Amino acid sequence: MRRLRSGQHLGVDGDGALARMCEHIRRVSSGRSPHRANGDDTKPLERLFCAPVDEPRDPPSTLAARAAAALGRFPDTAGLSIHEFPDAGLINRTWSVGVPPRFVIQLVNPVIPEPADERIDLVTRHLASRGLPTPLLVRDREGRCAVPASEGGRWRLLTFVPGTTWHRLRDHRHARSAGSLVGRFHAALQDLPDPLEPLRLQVHDT
To answer: How many helices (H) and strands (E) does the chain have?
Structure first.
């Protein structure tokens, strides 16, 4: 992983993954993608994901202060400190909450539609009921899945699950373990009460 500037990171799988994602977004924007729907405007996606590295951004200290202010909108967080992860997230900026961590707070990218939060709540609670370890979405004091952010996007709080984030497979045993986890994930969701309609996030149409 290559450090960029002001604590920013180029996420999953380094330059290659981000370059492929940006190229796909540009294909969709220009109409060269078979997944493009009539009338879709994907230019905002390109601006959000493929902005130049030197584009002005809020410094980490400013974002951390905003995260701390947003944290107060959620229950059971009084007196907890926030700390940015070394791997702060490719799409959503992410901080741990508490020492040791009890929660994770995220500044959700505006490209992610709000219904995605309700989906996360539905799916993760179903996974938990089947015995799978999973982060759970924490609703704010008004019962909402997320708190609107004044700078755009929204703040989302999840319970913390200890572990390690891997951006690349180490070997075939690592791949087999990952495949087994994906299998358990799908098996646990077989009896999900309601089918989920796609949210049409074209960035995932690769």
So the answer is: 5, 6
